[in-house]
Amino acid sequence: MSRPLKIILGLCSGIFLGLICHQYPGPWLNAAIAYISQPLGQLFMRLIFMIVVPLVFSSLILGIFELQDFKQLGRVGVKTLIYTVLASFSSVLVGLAFVSIFKPGEGLDPEMTKHLGALSEPVRSSQPATFTAALVSLIPKNPIASAANALEGDMLSLMIFTLIFGAALLLVRGDNKRDPLVACLETVRAVSMKIVDFAMSLAPLGVAALMFTMTAQFGLGLIANLGKYTAVVIAALAFQQFIVFGLILKLLARKSPWQFFSQIKEVMLTALSTASSNATLPTSIRVAENNLKLNRNISSFVLTIGSAANQNGTALFEGVTVLFLAQLYGIHLGLDEQLVVLFMSVVAGMGTAGVPGGSIPMMMIVLQTVGVPAEGIGLILGVDRILDMCRTVLNVSGDLVCAQVIQASESKNQ
């Protein structure tokens, strides 16, 4: 049985058992939650928490270092970088707009919201990080202390230090792809992803325990919100894919969106089935050359960089999920906090590994930074595989749109 199927089975089992037990409340149910299901769920989440800091540090530095080809391609590299940042920002803005309009996390009884917060470990930050406070502390006085306190609200300063460190490494050793420090960081990232893989192998049991805890306490209330959340994510991804990207193609590339999406349908189907930008890369390169007739040098460079850095769908998904869980826990995020979510979702999207489930550790960082219990991730793991497939389609489509826009821009300069 495949892992996604096992997770779905764990989700359904936890919900089914929880709904049955919800009908027979009593001391025995409270004991079962306190001593069995809740500790199992917490252990699963802590296994992911444990590896967040080394994964972030290694992934973001390597993400910057892998941009060394930008220096070689000059103008094309700069255009690609600018497009990547702007496209990621637009994706997160679309996601935040959808979740703010449709509010999938609202509608729970106030007592249920209160009990839901009590089931999670308390957020250690006394106050959610504000945008002004984040600006003051962007540069950490002690990056080691920031790493130690990353899950207590200092993750943003650690990420900024990591980006600066990566940029300096690129300038100092960008001409040496076999630098020993880079090799060490690659090993750290590989080991970190292996530990995440270990954690995800326990996901069926962890998800079952988390969903049992929630449904045994609250019944069907959370299930309805989860369905709304799934619909909002898919609708936001579709809007970004066909409306925003369609306008970009029409205005910047002078290309028919209908024709473009028809030509890349093989890539979209591959992304949907594999849920991996990296696994889809060979198909993307072939389709860019054969179907879209793009310049090989431009398409290979843009698509290779994009598979790691241009994660539009992942950034959108993270923004939607953070606001959804904040609504679910009854936590109000003002404009300052939403700006922090916007910035961190873009950065986290760029540092996310292009493999199934690679966005989960990064999203936990964003949650912790704005004061939302990261244990809420357990609620969405059961539907994450479906959403992972959908956001991967947007990720790889965004790479191809970028390549098409860069090709059109370069043609004007010739």
Strand content: under 5%
- Terminal Cα separation, in Å? 54 Å
Mass-distribution shape: globular
Number of strands: 0
What would you call the structural class? mainly alpha
* SSE sequence, one letter per element: HHHHHHHHHHHHHHHHHHHH
Enumerate the spans where pLDDT stays under 50 for 5 or more consecutive residues. 122-129
Largest sheet: none
Rg calc: 21 Å
Indicate the mean pLDDT.
79
Kindly state the percentage of residues in helix.
over 70%
* Number of H- or I-type helical stretches: 20
Question: Can you tell me about this structure?
Answer:
The chain is mainly alpha-helical and about 425 residues long. Helix content is about 80%, strand content about 0%. It is built from 20 helices and no strands. It has helices at about 5-20, 25-50, 50-65, 70-75, 75-100, 110-120, 130-135, 145-150, 155-175, 180-200, 205-220, 220-250, 255-265, 265-275, 275-290, 295-310, 310-330, 335-350, 360-370, 375-414. About 50% of the residues are buried.
Summarize the structure.
By secondary structure, the protein is mainly α. It is 79% helix and 0% strand. About 2% of the residues have low confidence.
Outline the fold blueprint:
Elements lengths: L2 H20 L4 H23 L2 H14 L2 H6 L1 H28 L7 H10 L11 H6 L6 H6 L6 H19 L6 H22 L1 H16 L2 H32 L4 H7 L1 H10 L2 H14 L5 H14 L2 H17 L6 H16 L9 H10 L7 H37 L1
Helix pairs in contact: 1-11, 1-20, 2-11, 3-9, 3-10, 5-12, 5-16, 5-17, 5-18, 5-20, 6-11, 11-20, 12-17, 12-20, 14-15, 14-20, 15-16, 15-20, 16-20, 17-18, 17-20, 18-19
